[in-house]
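Can you give me the bound-state structure? Components:
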Amino acid sequence: MYAITLVIQCPDKKGIIADVTSFVYQYSGNIQYIDQYVDREKGAFFMRLEAELNEKNCPYETFIEAFEKGPASEFTMTWSHQPIAYKPKMAIFVSKYDHCLYDLLGRYKSGELAVEIPFILSNHPDLAPIAKAFEIPFYYVPVTKETKANATQEQLKLLNQHEVDFIVLARYMQIIPEELIEVYKSNIINIHHSFLPAFPGAKPYHSAFERGVKIIGATSHYVTEELDAGPIIEQGVAHVSHNHSVSQLIAKGSDLEKIVLANAVKQHAAKKVMVYGNKTVIFT
Amino acid sequence: MYAITLVIQCPDKKGIIADVTSFVYQYSGNIQYIDQYVDREKGAFFMRLEAELNEKNCPYETFIEAFEKGPASEFTMTWSHQPIAYKPKMAIFVSKYDHCLYDLLGRYKSGELAVEIPFILSNHPDLAPIAKAFEIPFYYVPVTKETKANATQEQLKLLNQHEVDFIVLARYMQIIPEELIEVYKSNIINIHHSFLPAFPGAKPYHSAFERGVKIIGATSHYVTEELDAGPIIEQGVAHVSHNHSVSQLIAKGSDLEKIVLANAVKQHAAKKVMVYGNKTVIFT
Amino acid sequence: MYAITLVIQCPDKKGIIADVTSFVYQYSGNIQYIDQYVDREKGAFFMRLEAELNEKNCPYETFIEAFEKGPASEFTMTWSHQPIAYKPKMAIFVSKYDHCLYDLLGRYKSGELAVEIPFILSNHPDLAPIAKAFEIPFYYVPVTKETKANATQEQLKLLNQHEVDFIVLARYMQIIPEELIEVYKSNIINIHHSFLPAFPGAKPYHSAFERGVKIIGATSHYVTEELDAGPIIEQGVAHVSHNHSVSQLIAKGSDLEKIVLANAVKQHAAKKVMVYGNKTVIFT
Amino acid sequence: MYAITLVIQCPDKKGIIADVTSFVYQYSGNIQYIDQYVDREKGAFFMRLEAELNEKNCPYETFIEAFEKGPASEFTMTWSHQPIAYKPKMAIFVSKYDHCLYDLLGRYKSGELAVEIPFILSNHPDLAPIAKAFEIPFYYVPVTKETKANATQEQLKLLNQHEVDFIVLARYMQIIPEELIEVYKSNIINIHHSFLPAFPGAKPYHSAFERGVKIIGATSHYVTEELDAGPIIEQGVAHVSHNHSVSQLIAKGSDLEKIVLANAVKQHAAKKVMVYGNKTVIFT
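Here's the bound-state model for the whole set.
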C-alpha cells in the first residue's frame, strides 16, 4: 500500500470530478481526501486528492503514466504528484535575525515539520553556531555588489547538489536574483514582517507605529520578481495599542512571523498550496 | 435551470464519490461545490454537494427519485436535499433579553439571512414592540408549571401552522420539552453564553469571573434532552482581563452571543451542518 | 455624590500624577480609575481619571474652576471633563447601506450604548423606515454638486439645534466638507471597510480579492481633511480564503464594520479616546 | 540612575495613589509607568509602578527602607520590588515533550526573555541533548514512588544552590510536591493543554475531540495544591473543525502551549502578575 497526493489545475468543465474519481476507483484506489475549488469568473478548476493504492495491482509509476494518458490529457491538466511519505528537501536562507531560524529548527527537531533540511545558507557568518547546535550544515555565501553573480551561482550549485525542493527565506535580507526565482518558481517562501499590502518594503514596524495602527501583521508569500508582491500564502495579525513602542511592535511581530512562516512551510510541504495568477488556492 | 443541495451520510466504502459525481454528470448536472469528510475510526462518510441541473432534461422530482433509487439505495445513504433558492422558515423563541433578537432581525432586514421568519414567540410579553417595529407576528405563550403542557401544544400548533423548518432560541430562558425536541430533532438551535463545556448551566459569566479566566466564550449548539450538551455548531471567544466586572463580561459576552448565533443560523439554513453522534460536521 | 471623568494632555514633567491625585484627595474625592501614558520621544503626557466627589463639599463647577486654576494651569494642560452620568448626543449619518445602522440602533435600544441619538441624517430617503421603526427623527438632506453648500448649512443647523456632541458616519457615502470637520474636529467617527492603510478609497473588498489576501479588516477613524487618513480608533480583522467571492468578503466585512464601529462609538462616548498628532491614545 | 519596579497590594483607601506618587516625587524619582486596579467588592487596591531614581541622591536600599517606613506601613501594604535591570533566575522542568522547551530556549537565545536559566531539570534523560545544544546544565532527577521524597529534596537543593526565583513546568508530567509549592508559592508556572476549566486532567485533546468542540485552548497558571485549579495567568485559543483528528488537535494545541507559556513567563519575569485569592491581576 502507498499513498499519493495529486494536485490538479485545468479549465473548468463538466465531469472532471466524476472522471478523476472513477479513474482512481478503477485502479482500486481508495480516496481519502478530496477537495476542489472552481474560480467561476476565470473558468478555472482546482483539485487536491489523496488516495491509497496497492503497489502490487498498480505500482506508483504505472498509476502516474495512466493518469497522464487518461484524465490529465483529456482535461488538459497542469498537475503534479508526490508520495505522501515523501519529505521535501527545504533549504533555509538567513541573515542575522535568528528568531525564525530557532523556531523552524525547534519545530523540525520536534518532528512537527515533514521536511528534510539539507542546509542553512547565510550571507553572514553570525548564525553558524545555531546550525551547529542543531547539527545542520551551514554555508556562508557573502553577497556584495561585486560577488552577487558568483554568489548566485554558488547558491544554485548548492541547491542542485542537495536536490533542494524549496527554499525558505527566514528573514533573509537580500533580494533574490531572477535566475534563482525562475528555477524555484512558486518554491521560494518569504516572510514579510507586515500585513501586506500595507507597509511593504523595509521598516514596516516603524511605519505601523507612525500611522498609529491598532493591529499589526505578518505575511508569508511566494517570491516573485516584483518585491513583496507575490502570491500570499498565509497572514497573521495581533492587536497592539498606543502603548507599544517600536521595539515592542517588533517583539510582538516576531511572534507572528514565526507562526505565519511555520504554517506556510507546513502547507507548502504538504502540497496544499496551488498558485494561479498572483493568488493562491489553499486546501485544508 | 435550478440548483440543488444534497447532503449525504453513509458507511464509508470505495467509490462513493465516483458514483455520485458520475450520477450527476449522467443527468447533465454541473457540480458547483463538493465537499466530503470521512471519519475513519467510525467508518462514516459525509458529503455535501451543490449542482446545477436543467428543469427540462431533468425536473427536480425526477432527479430526487432517481437519486433515491440509484446511489442512495446502493450505499444505504441517509440523505436530504433542498433547492438552493429555498428560504427555510425560522421561528424565533425569546424571553426578555433583546440583544440577540435585535441582531437577528437587523441581519434579516439587511438581507443577510436567507430565511423567512414567520413569527416570534415568547413566554413574556416584553419584546412584542420589537416584533411590531420589524413587522413580524408575535405570539405570547406564557409557561408556568401548570400551563407547561398546554404551552407545548400551542407551540407545536403554531410551528405546524406556519410550516416552520427550524427554531432559534435567542436567549429563551425555558427548558424545551422533549415532545418539541423529538419533532425538531437537530433543528433547534440554542445560544449558550459560555464556552462549553466550561460553565454549563445558569450564570456562566459569574462563574467565569469567579474562576478568573482570561477568555470568555459563547457556544451555539443543537438542543438535545441533556441540558447544554447537544452537538456544538459554532463557538466564539473574546479576551478579558481582571479589569472586567461581571457586568462588563456580560456586555462583551453579548457581542459574542450575537455573532456566534447568527453564524450558526446561516450555516444551518444553508444545510452546511450535519449531525452525527453528538458532534457536527460543518462544510464551509 | 457625583462622578466625573477628567482627560488630560500636557508636556511630560515630574510630579504631574502626584499633583493631580493630591488635588483630588484634597477635595475629598475618591479616585476610582486612573490611567496614564507617556510618549517619551515627544515628551507628551496623557492621563484619564475617574473620581467620585461630594456635591455638598465640592460642587461640580467649583471643582472644575479649582482644577483649571490649579494643576491645569501649573502644567499647561489641554484638558476636558464630563460627568460620568452624561450621555453624549450622537447624530448618525447614513446613505443606503443599512447594516451598521441596524446594528447601532439595536445596541442603542438594548441599552448598550451610553448615548442619546437626536436624529439620523441621510442623503437618500431609503432608510427612513428604519428610523421610524426605532422612533428616531430622520432628516433627508440630499447632496449634489449644486446643493452641497446648502446641504452643509442645513447639516450644521440641525447639529446645532440638537446640540450634537459627535457624529457617526455609518457608511455615509459622501465626503465631509471642511467646514463640518472644523466644527467637529476629532468628533466625527467614520468606518472604513478595509484594514487601513491597505486598500484606502472605494471598493476595498474588490482590491482585497484581487490581491488574494488571507485576512480582511475594518477600520474606525476620526475624519480629517485627508481622506481615510485620520487617527485610527479601532481595527478588526477576519480570516478569509480563496473560497470567498467578493460578495462573501463583503458579507464577512459587514460584520467587522458593525463591531469595529460600535466599539469605537463606545470608547469615544466614554471619553476614552485622546487624539494627538495623527494618532490616538485609547485608555481601557 | 537606576530604575525600579514596585508592586503593591493593600486595602483600598482614599489617597493611596496621591501618597505613593508624592513619595516618589519627594525622592526626585520620575514615574515612568503607573497602573492600578481596585476590586471594589473586596475593597482591595493593586498598583504597579516603574520609576527612575538617582543613585547619588537616593540609593536603592535607602529608597526601599523609606518606602517601607512610609507608604507601605501607612497603608499596610503587601509589596515587593525589583530593579528593572535584574534578570530573574528561571529553572525549567521538563519530561519528554520537547516543543515548549525548544520554544523557550529559542526565545531565550534570541534575547526575547529577560531571564537567566541556571538549569533544566527532568525526570527523564531524553531531553539532555537539547540542553547540551543550548549549553545549559541539565539535571536528571528521576521520580518514582520510592524516590519521590528524595527527588523533592534534590530539587530543592538545586533550586537553592542556583538561587532560582521561579520555576517553569514546560510540560513536566509530575505532580509537584506540597513542599516545593510552599517554597515557591505563586512562583511555579504550569502550562495546561486545554482551555481551563474545560477539560482539566490528562488527555484534554482527546476529551475535546469527543465533545466536538470548535475551539481548543491552552492555559498557563500558577501551581497550587489543587490540580489544574491555580490562578490563571494567560489563555490562548485556536479554531478547529470536525476535520481535525486528535493528533491534529495536539499539533495545533502545541503551538498554543508555546505562545501562552512564553507570554506567561514574560509577564511573570517583569513582575506584571499579582496573585490575590485564586485570581491574577495582570498589568500591561
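A couple of observations. The first strand of chain D starts at residue 2 and ends at 11. Chain D touches chain B through 28 residues (CB under 8 Å).
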